[in-house]
Write a structure and sequence with these properties.
Blueprint (H helix, E strand, L loop, with lengths): L7 H23 L5 H16 L6 H10 L2 H26 L4 H30 L4 H14 L1 H20 L2 H26 L13
Amino acid sequence: MKFNIESPFFQFMNTLATFIGLNVLFLILCLPIITIGPALKALYTVTMQEARKDHKAIFSTFFRAFKENFFASAGTFLLYLGLALVFLFNAFFWGGQGSIIGTIFLIVFILALIVLALSFLYIFPLMARFDNGLRQTVKNSIFIPLLHSKETLGIVAIQIATLTLCVFVPQMKIFMILLGFSFIALCNSYLFIRVFSCYEEEQTGIPAM
């Protein structure tokens, strides 16, 4: 029996195996914690490339993106992690005061956490797609989610659905280890490239906001 390696089935199996390998590689490179930022940037470099049907070598692209601006992306992740811890601490602290002032500050820090979370969803895809410098990229990651609310809601819905399935469906954890992160990044990437296409005529990156 002769197998046609160009058939849709074999093409699908090859893509599936590649994304499983990409997922495992991403998880391994996230283990030191401080490398989560570069790993996310590299993952989105690959998945946005695939979403645009720009089929280049996946693993060499991943490693190249992982090394490029390593310290900037690693520092960005640590910055967001630090801010999240500060905002969470303050939200719990002021929420436990049982006063009007405490409630006001609780609302302020909850809103700050929401803005931080939306910015975090966008920051590494932006770093993967545009070269704007860290300060401008952070600024863009705050305003772009608001300017493209439809796509942002879609991206948030994907994350919420994933977290819900992980909590209520035990098999979902196995899926996440094998394929989940690369698959979700690919799903997000279709929405990100729709957003970023509005700015890609600017070859140097997104214009200042």
